[in-house]
Design a protein that fits this description.
- The protein is α/β, with parallel strands linked by helices.
- The chain has two domains: 218 residues, FAD/NAD(P)-binding domain (3-Layer(bba) Sandwich); 223 residues, no CATH class.
- 32% of the residues lie in helices and 18% in strands.
- The chain contains 17 helices and 22 strands.
- The strands form six sheets. Strands 1, 2, 5, 6, 7, 8, 19 and 20 form an eight-stranded mixed β-sheet that branches. A five-stranded parallel β-sheet has the order 9-18-10-11-14, covered by helices on one side. Strands 15-16-17 form a three-stranded antiparallel β-sheet, with no helix packed on it.
- The radius of gyration is 23 Å and the shape is globular.
- The two termini are 34 Å apart.
- The structure holds ligand NA7.
Length: 541
């Protein structure tokens, strides 16, 4: 909880919504500039995604040496990651370490959800209301609300009436859950399920997986981080971080490929895929330039993975059901796993296709699919999130002249650089839609945005101005650029959460910027060098 002196204060230079990795660094940065800051966080601790997603097997799908803060050299030198890919407990420990190290908690109000944020043009202030009854104002409002933070219950009849234990992977009980002796049903086969299924299968009496869309998954090849490798990485940290800025996804390990899948012979291509598969992680997607732009090139990689599935899963019918055939590989988030496909060789695991026949209803003790009744004790919903726009739309945000964010975004998000929204002065998004965010090393993108937001606030201060907001024209051009770039790729072909396709009724618009981190950063730098082209800085007071 915040200190009592902070609690009694009612006006702040900035309010930050969310104390995940974005909110924590924003707080630190603004405090360092001498601003008064209050952070509201709905959990009772820091860490965001890593606070909520505590399901068995939860891990980051990017390697820890890269998926970590770079803003403080001492922090990155003193922290010793133990595993190649951070586990949820390790990532949460890191988040808490950062909160302690920079004394962040004194400005964070936990277990409090922001419900309303209304801009008062006359006062040049945001009025913010919380579910805890706080009514405070701030000159700047920063949405550090995350991209995957609004868990979705599936719209299936009876889901609310399930009488056994019911869990969502994105809101998992803090004490953990034991499954021995239980018949468990899990709905969903996205990244969360792919990580959880092997772990739950090891414990449960019986695990039934309800699969609507088969996803591509690649072995992560996790393991402990060799201390000598860790030290070697640390010795070159600055160089590696800088190299990451020059890559498409902000990941130094995966640089830009240089040749087309058809520049090599079939045998050479096969060998390249085999090497990438042996290496594990996302390497396979970075083998050729055209995997995400050319359907035929993509199909070579997709079929390679299907062959691995058929090789691994002993029952040919189950293997075929697990082979993704309705979207190009990489156009939905590529899953990384540890023995996911192998799990289907266990005799306590059953795969049910709910694409051909959808789940009809959930009964108090069963999932019903057509004529089949699957009796279960526990129901795990690995059904994902209202991604990228859900958290911001959950808050009643009203900008200048009564503009409602939810209405402005009714046909899809509209932003300038994924950072700000026209008519919402002094409201900033960290890794908002139409920025690389989820299509990049998230912490790198968070740091980039936090630094840009801080620079805008600094500019206002230096020039004695009060408000900044994007110009409508600049925003329209960016939205259009975002769509153009997306449609040069295969991404829009998949019914993914990137497209809003997992939420009934949500507009189908491709939301992340996929022109790459390098290009995005170059564009932002040009904007800044051109005196923040497209942003209107003014003295509204
Ligand atoms: P995802 O990737 O959105 O996966 C959700 C899964 O749940 C997916 O397989 C969905 O099938 C399935 N789903 C959702 N609703 C239903 C219904 N009604 N019936 C059957 N199946 C359903 O969420 P995750 O939590 O796994 O991962 C989110 C991100 O977190 C991930 O990309 C990483 O970045 C980390 P569908 O594909 O829609 O047919």
């Amino acid at each position: 909880m915040s200190s009592s002196s902070a609690v009694s204060q009612t006006h702040f230079d900035a309010i930050v919504v969310g104390a995940g990795f974005a909110g924590m660094y924003m707080l630190h940065k603004l405090r360092g500039m001498g601003l008064s800051v209050r952070v509201y966080e709905r959990g009772d601790g820091v860490g965001g995604t890593w606070y909520w997603n505590r399901y068995p097997g939860a891990r980051c799908d990017l390697e820890s040496m890269e998926y970590s803060y770079s803003f403080d050299k001492d922090l990155q030198q003193e922290w010793d990651w133990q595993e190649k890919y951070g586990t949820q407990p390790e990532l949460l420990k890191y988040a808490n370490h950062v909160a302690d190290r920079f004394d962040l908690r004194r400005d964070i109000v936990f277990e409090t959800r922001v419900t309303h944020a209304h801009y008062d043009a006359r006062a040049v202030r945001w009025a913010v209301t919380t579910d805890g009854g706080d009514q405070v104002t701030a000159t700047h409002l920063v949405m550090a609300t995350g991209n995957l933070s609004t868990p979705q219950l599936p719209k299936i009849d009876g889901v609310a009436d399930f009488a056994g234990r019911r869990f969502h992977t994105g809101d998992w009980p803090h004490g953990g859950v034991d499954f021995p002796g239980r018949r468990v049903g899990i709905i969903g086969t996205g990244s969360s399920a792919v990580q959880a299924i092997p772990k739950i299968a090891e414990q449960a009496d019986q695990l039934t997986v309800f699969q609507r869309t088969a996803n591509f998954s690649i072995p992560a090849r996790h393991g402990p981080l060799d201390p000598s490798q860790r030290e070697a990485h640390k010795a070159r940290y600055d160089e590696i971080r800088s190299a990451a800025y020059e890559t498409p996804f902000g990941i130094a390990k995966y640089g830009s490929p240089t040749q087309s899948a058809f520049d090599v012979s079939d045998a050479e291509r096969q060998k390249i895929y085999e090497d990438a598969w042996a290496l594990g992680g996302q390497a396979l997607l970075f083998t050729f330039t055209d995997l995400l732009t050319d359907g035929a090139a993509n199909e070579t990689a997709a079929e390679f993975v299907r062959e691995r599935i058929r090789e691994t899963v002993k029952n040919p019918a189950v293997a075929e059901l697990l082979c993704p055939k309705d979207h190009p590989i990489g156009t939905k988030r590529l899953c990384l796993d540890s023995f996911y496909y192998e799990t289907y060789n266990r005799n306590n695991v059953n795969l049910v296709d709910v694409k051909t026949t959808a789940i009809s209803r959930i009964e108090p003790h069963a999932v019903v699919v057509g004529d089949n009744v699957y009796e279960i004790d526990d129901l795990v919903l690995a059904t994902g999130f209202d991604a990228m726009t859900g958290a911001a739309r959950d808050i009643d945000i009203i900008g200048a002249d009564g503009a409602r964010l939810a209405e402005r975004w009714a046909a899809g998000p509209q932003t300038y650089l994924g950072l700000m929204v026209a008519d919402f002065p002094n409201m900033y998004l960290i890794t908002g839609p139409q920025s690389p965010g989820v299509k990049s090393q998230m912490i790198l993108s968070i740091e980039h945005h936090v630094d840009m937001i801080a620079a805008m606030i600094e500019k206002l201060r230096a020039e004695g101005l009060t408000t900044v907001a994007p110009e409508a024209q600049a925003q329209d051009a960016w939205v259009s650029e975002n769509n153009t770039v997306a449609h040069m790729t295969l991404y829009p072909e998949a019914a993914s959460w990137y497209m809003g396709a997992n939420i009934p009724g949500k507009p189908r618009v491709f939301m992340p910027y996929v022109g790459g981190v390098k290009q995005y950063r170059a564009t932002c730098q040009e904007v800044i060098d051109d005196n923040w082209r497209g942003f209107a800085f003014s003295d509204a007071g």
